[in-house]
Predict the 3D structure of the following.
Amino acid sequence: MKMHSLEDFILNYEIYNEFGRVKKYGEITFKEKKYPLMTVSFGNAQAPTLFINGGIHGLERIGAQLTLSLLNSFHERLSWDSVLQKMLKDIHVVFLPLANPVGYFETTRSNGNGVDLMRNADVEALDPVPYLLGGHKKGPHLPWFRGHSTEQETEFVISVVRDILSATDTLASLDIHSGFGFRDQLWFPFANAKNKFTQISELYLLFQLFRKTFPHHVYKVEPQSKVYLTHGDIWDYCFYKVRKEHQVYLPLTLEMGSWIWVKKNPLQIFSKTGLFNPIKKHRIHRTLRRHRPLFDFLLHALISNQFWTQIDPKNKTDIEQKAIAKYYE
Ligand SMILES: [Zn+2]
């Protein structure tokens, strides 16, 4: 069965039970239609975990499509790839392609209640946030509305992280978005404050491995707080309130630069989704291919995580200083 589209995904997800495990967390009802909230996972839940999710902002459709495409090739490979099959005893991979199904199918950024899920978690910013963009409570008629309580979809994503961290102490997650900018960016916490990320040393060592392995990689890596601050970021919430003190958790956000697609095809600015997504077929395919090395790297780096999670106490200060110089100065 072909699972090319998110429409196929929500209708036929049972097929992933062949090599993986489908877990349904609930259902969203909108205009008399029901949409499942679910994950597909593979491997050993007690092992270091890679969590890939997309579709938090419905309009940024390419994020959900990329997550689905990674899921599909992973599942396909498990039918023949004995190396990958063996790896599954040392790794856990969780895919959540569609965090905001109503937003995806109605092509809106927010969910069905007009709430921006990336402003909706129960976290307040500690430093000033940009007007409106940082999240507000004025109402769903304006973008970036925080909502008045935690939405079902936000609760869903948090529950997935809670389940993962109840079984393992090592987690890296990749939340896939697309937005303005010419480059693909990888953001790490925090979104609510200019404070330095607590696990900056682990992050620094991980990306040092990445740079050594892929010296010409395409990403600009930086703290989200250097771009803009917000209230209600889901990853802030998970890091502050779900992670336990001893756990290593690197929540990464991939923000795919969409201006390059617009620059190459300026007419797409007139389409509703054109500011956030590649429209031409070859460019969609190129985008779906482009992030495979990062995915593969994270998979292997989690299995061999001793190189970045186990820091010798006598080197700790030195590494932390280097990390701060690289990312904050
Ligand atoms: Zn987004």
Remarks:
- DSSP finds twelve helices and eight strands in the chain.
- The chain has one domain: 6-328.
